[in-house]
Specification:
Number of strands of chain B: 12
Helix content of chain A: 25-40%
Oligomer: heterodimer
Order of helices and strands of chain B: EEEEEEEEEEEE
Strand content of chain A: 15-25%
Largest sheet of chain B: 7 strands, antiparallel
Shape of chain B: globular
Largest interface: A-B, 32 and 37 residues
Structural class of chain A: alpha+beta
Strand order of the largest sheet of chain A: 3-1-6
Structural class of chain B: mainly beta
Helix content of chain B: under 10%
Order of helices and strands of chain A: EHEEEEEH
Shape of chain A: elongated
């Protein structure tokens, strides 16, 4: 893995060689690079540049993934980009719902 | 010891001190933004009302649309016309927030939002605030602790940087002072 890059939890477990990585979330404890309690494969984690390895603990099994130092702007993995697109669509839907609610209130006010 | 440091990015960065204000303005420091329009400039204002960022050519992120870009992406103007926000460079994000700790720590649950300056859950009145982390595809209407921008978690490190695009629009006439930003995280 490259440092200074955002990855999904699923990508990191895959890179660590965890068997059936998509099956473990929510079933056994997952800790990645010191972040415990990860239950979502889409959890986005920025792997920094300071450590030479990221420790992945799944249940009682610990694995290490080498981290290659990379300077420059932060990057996003392909999986992260997909997750951020989906997150963005959800945020837009929330805003549209709020705006629709406001418009409804205005209409009621006009009727009064 | 854990410390947060906020910066307004620019040709050079301006550190935003605890007593400073982030000023969203029209084209120049202190100029008004038209109601329902978004900031055309962003500045650091000192407690004495001086323009602390004047020498640093500060970055500005002007909200253009929530979903008018490619594939429904949000759009922003960072000074050279309208672009999708996921194409904005790290250096063009107006805000940089650094969290540092004396020992290597992981960070999670990191959020950023605007509030009324008193109660984190309360949105600032009569302001529309949009914010997004660098590389995100859409803005969040980040108003109140219930609707924050969720920033990426970070693996163990002594220093964690996050870059944020932020824009604001007055919905009514008048200076908006009951308006602050807040960031929260858990480290372990």
């Amino acid at each position: 893995m490259k440092g200074n890059t955002k990855y999904t939890a699923l990508e990191i477990l895959t890179e660590a060689g965890v068997e059936n990585p998509s099956e473990v979330f929510g079933k056994v404890a997952v800790t990645i690079a010191g972040i415990s309690g990860i239950v979502n494969p889409d959890h986005v984690i920025l792997i920094g540049n300071e450590e030479e390895k990221a420790v992945v603990i799944v249940g009682n099994e610990a694995k290490e993934v080498a981290v290659e130092k990379r300077d420059g702007d932060q990057e996003a993995s392909e999986g992260t980009k997909v997750v951020l697109e989906a997150k963005g669509r959800a945020e837009t839907e929330k805003i549209e719902a709020r705006e629709a609610e406001k418009e409804e209130k205005v209409e009621v006010k006009v009727e009064e | 010891m854990a410390t947060f440091t906020w910066y307004l990015q620019g040709t050079s960065t301006t550190t935003i001190e605890a007593t400073d204000l982030i000023q969203f303005a029209g084209g120049t420091f202190g100029s008004a933004i038209t109601v329902n329009a978004y900031n055309s400039s962003t500045h650091v204002e000192s407690a004495g009302a001086a323009d602390d960022s004047s020498a640093n050519t500060p970055k500005n992120n002007k909200f253009i649309s929530q979903s008018g870009g490619t594939g429904g992406d949000s759009q922003v103007d960072v000074g050279a016309g309208t672009v999708d926000i996921d194409s904005v460079t790290q250096a063009n994000c107006a805000l940089k927030i650094n969290f540092a700790h004396g020992s290597s720590v992981a960070v999670s649950g990191w959020t950023f939002y605007a509030y009324d300056g008193t109660t984190p859950a309360t949105a600032p009145a009569n302001i529309d605030v949009r914010a997004a982390e660098y590389q995100e595809a859409n803005f969040t209407q980040a108003e109140g602790s219930g609707s924050p921008v969720s920033l990426a978690d970070g693996g163990a490190a002594t220093s964690h940087d996050r870059y944020i695009m932020v824009s604001a629009s007055p919905l009514t006439v008048g200076l908006k002072t009951a308006f602050a930003f807040r960031t929260e995280l858990t480290y372990q």
